[in-house]
TrEMBL record:
This is Protein GrpE. The gene is grpE. Coiled coil: none annotated. It comes from Lachnoanaerobaculum umeaense. Homodimer. The keyword Chaperone applies. It is found in: Cytoplasm.
Length: 204
């Protein structure tokens, strides 16, 4: 009887030991509520970091797409507006260059009209011819003014190398030092720039 009791007790202890060995891995892999909450918080933090502080649960895909397209449209409109302004500026620059070039070519013609007006008698048979020359000259100078081309006022002014080209010097007690005494060839400005320097005679 004692041997049987001892054997039975030994078998029961063996079963308990084996049961503990089988159950031990299950206890190690089981996730506690605290661990699950920690993982959820970590995932939420990653989402907020990726998408900002917006409430992702309430976000609508359609709204996100609309916002993206709206942003692209605004960028495209801004780029087009910059292109338009740049094109207008380039167009204005090209127009100025063209107008300046044409005006430079017309200046010798205007000079010849001025010489013709001086040489043609205003009375007698040449009066009609002189009037015709004067009319054409006035039309050309009016067109120049409309384009921004204006003559440089130099006689009696102090000599300015930025505007005048001195080709002669004279002594004149009635004029001050470095004063333009006479204009030999009229100079012109195109807007804020010199189109042609005035050819002048400078006193003293």
């Amino acid at each position: 009887m004692k041997e049987k009791d001892l054997k039975r007790e030994h078998d029961e202890n063996k079963k308990v030991t084996e049961g503990e060995e089988l159950e031990e891995p299950v206890v190690e892999t089981e996730e506690t509520p605290e661990e699950a909450a920690a993982k959820a918080a970590a995932m939420e933090a990653e989402v907020e970091e990726a998408f900002g502080d917006e409430n992702i649960e309430k976000a609508d895909k359609k709204d996100i797409v609309i916002a993206d397209l709206t942003d692209r449209l605004k960028r495209s409109m801004a780029e087009f507006d910059n292109f338009r302004k740049r094109s207008e500026k380039e167009k204005a620059t090209m127009f100025d260059m063209g107008a300046r070039s044409v005006a430079e070519k017309l200046l010798p013609i205007v000079d010849n009209f001025e010489r013709a007006m001086t040489a043609t008698p205003a009375e007698g048979e040449g009066r009609a011819f002189a009037d015709g020359i004067a009319m054409i000259y006035n039309q050309m100078t009016k067109t120049f003014e409309d384009l921004g081309v204006k003559p440089i006022d130099c006689v009696g002014k102090e000599f300015d190398p930025n505007l005048h080209n001195a080709v002669m010097h004279i002594e004149d007690e009635n004029l001050g030092e470095n004063i333009v005494a006479e204009e030999l060839l009229k100079g012109y400005m195109y807007k804020d720039g010199v189109l042609r320097h005035s050819m002048v005679k400078v006193a003293n």
